[in-house]
């Protein structure tokens, strides 16, 4: 039971979804229908996200341009650089699809919900976190396909495609914009039903994961992966996360940010979004082993939740014991 408490319910649901796809994969006409349903569900998820996002919070957070620039650089410069460095080693340690998946996750935008939640728990600048995480996700609609085409030139996995950008924009950005347009009328309702709508968000992601892994199972996923591959993948993910957490902390402190802004930079700059990443993978790697490629993202997702939950609690404890220290002690 103690071990189970370390995993949030959504992570357990992801594991159950993979198990279901392994036992009962969807295929043929049923897969085509489910793909349509999944695309609609993802569109609704981003529409509701746009409806929930407070414009006032965005306006308040926009003033912290140095913070946003630092988070943006961590998400779209530091991470890809580390991914390229790792790509020199991972092909000899991991199967090709997993190595491509590790590189892919480094190009993704930051999370929204967990970045904000951990920033709040730790006592950071929540308004700036809302703005920074949102900017990261919206920018990712264009930046991620560009980065994928750039960093994966030598892998042969995928190249930049305007069609992919258009598809991602229609599926993710357009619903978000519509949600923002209707936010004055839907915002209060969306906030009142935040818990219920959160379940629909997670349900949409689970549908995408089930479809992706169904296709991967049909292509012989578990026959090509060994247990050692998963162990190595966990180690690579831990190394990547540790490097980013250390670098973002040092940069925030050396740049003179307040303790609250440091917390925001660390939590927003170290995350990668599963909610955005899986739908993007379906577009960018269409026809390929999407289930295998998103597996590193799923491992990294769970790892970042566990590590950042502990880090947020430590920041909060340090803040209570040293309220006059603007930078706090080293986390």
Task: Describe the protein in words.
The protein has 331 residues and is mainly alpha-helical. The chain has a single domain, classed as Na+/H+ antiporter like fold (Up-down Bundle). Helices cover 79% and strands 0% of the residues. It is built from 16 helices and no strands. The protein is globular, with a radius of gyration of 19 Å. The two termini are 28 Å apart.
Characteristics of this structure?
331 residues, mainly alpha, Na+/H+ antiporter like fold, 16 helices, 0% strand
- As residue ranges, the low-confidence spans are 321-331
CATH topological fold name: Na+/H+ antiporter like fold
Mean pLDDT: 80
* Number of separate domains: 1
Radius of gyration from the CA trace?
19 Å
Q: Find the structural class using helix and strand composition.
A: mainly alpha
Can you lay out the helices and strands and say which pair or pack?
Layout: H1 9-23, H2 28-52, H3 55-61, H4 65-87, H5 90-93, H6 96-105, H7 113-122, H8 126-151, H9 162-181, H10 183-192, H11 194-218, H12 221-224, H13 227-254, H14 259-269, H15 274-284, H16 290-321
Helix pairs in contact: 1-11, 2-9, 2-10, 2-11, 3-8, 4-6, 4-8, 4-13, 4-14, 6-16, 7-8, 7-14, 7-16, 8-9, 8-14, 9-15, 11-15, 13-14, 13-16, 15-16
Structure at a glance:
This protein has 16 helices and no strands.
